[in-house]
Amino acid sequence: xxxxxxxxxxxxxxxxxxxxxxxxxxxxxxxxxxxxxxxxxxxxxxxxxxxxxxxxxxxxxxxxxxxxxxxxxxxxxxxxxxxxxxxxxxxxxxxxxxxxxxxxxxxxxxxxxxxxxxxxxxxxxxxxxxxxxxxxxxxxxxxxxxxxxxxxxxxxxxxxxxxxxxxxxxxxxxxxxxxxxxxxxxxxxxxxxxxxxxxxxxxxxxxxxxxxxxxxxxxxxxxxxxxxxxxxxxxxxxxxxxxxxxxxxxxxxxxxxxxxxxxxxxxxxxxxxxxxxxxxxxxxxxxxxxxxxxxxxxxxxxxxxxxxxxxxxxxxxxxxxxxxxxxxxxxxxxxxxxxxxxxxxxxxxxxxxxxxxxxxxxxxxxxxxxxxxxxxxxxxxxxxxxxxxxxxxxxxxxxxxxxxxxxxxxxxxxxxxxxxxxxxxxxxx
Length: 429
Hints:
The chain is of the alpha+beta class. The chain has a domain at 287-411: 3-Layer(aba) Sandwich (UbiD C-terminal domain-like). Helix content is 25%, strand content 28%. The protein has twelve helices and 23 strands. The protein has helices at residues 3-12, 28-35, 61-68, 75-84, 157-167, 182-188, 199-206, 281-288, 292-301, 332-343, 362-372, 417-420; strands at residues 17-19, 41-43, 53-55, 89-91, 97-99, 119-120, 124-129, 132-137, 140-144, 147-150, 172-178, 209-213, 220-222, 227-241, 244-245, 251-252, 255-267, 273-275, 306-311, 320-325, 349-354, 378-385, 398-405. The strands form five sheets. Strands 5, 6, 7, 8, 9, 10, 11, 14 and 17 form a nine-stranded antiparallel β-sheet that branches. Helix 9 (292-301) crosses helix 10 (332-343). It starts with a helix and ends in a 9-residue tail after the last helix.
């Protein structure tokens, strides 16, 4: 669903909280987003900017599902289909007002006291080089009226394209979209095989995507993007990036990263700035939910019958997964643990439960672990490749993993039959 359509639907459903009092983009708006976690908010009067700010728009699986017109239970199936069957991307015409590159016009938020400064956190970067196209999320720290320093994860597509341009003494043209449709946001957070253009995933989720060419470089972007910053990742300039509060609500390390220079700003009339709270529900949903189909596929490739996959809120939507399976042998839980790690290397904890456990309910999961785990029904991995977001791992993500088998045994001794089965009221009682 387009950004404005989603806002309008939230308004008509009375789910949108409007705040008309004057608020500051420095700490105040982030604090109000945190206070209203799970509820979409529109800040209509932002100090220092003419643009309103919207946040918490996709801060639950219910909101994400509604924005795509699906039930949240259909999430894995829907995204898997979109990844396998990309939709049409067509040329269109956008209505934009163009201006000189003055980033001070934008209500860029400063989120936490030790942050480097104001950060754009909802940005999706569109890049093209040598016939390759990429769409991906990147945080951007404002370091001047026309400059950001942006975090590029090593060995990912945009980083590879940047290195190729730099090695040839060239800048990498980009278009930075703020205020994107739900499909584009999901596609930007989805990992695909190299060479696959993620915009096809967005088109499949939305039915189709219309794009327009940038005015200052050869990139393209959707015609319904609220704000687009046309620019370049320059080959001869870097800067310090960080500290920044990441997914785990802890500060990421400081790195030297490439500089983005903005050449022109394009805005739709009446543009709304999308703010994404670092470490908030919306951040966890958009970063973690696109990983569940990848984990699911790794499990099914291992021959398992999978009921559901859930990256938990307590694991910041990234490090901790609960998987419900149809257990057919006592080896299945161990197979599932190994497969889940192949599907998402960043996992730190993997819990396998039976098919009747609601993986989204922490009480149900804790009950299964408490009742059915025993010594020996776990796997401990040390010196394993994981995530740099894990505060106990090394800076390059080497740490530990724990896999827990919380499934009931398939064969139960007669004397334990009643102890192994949860009591239920008779139907109709």
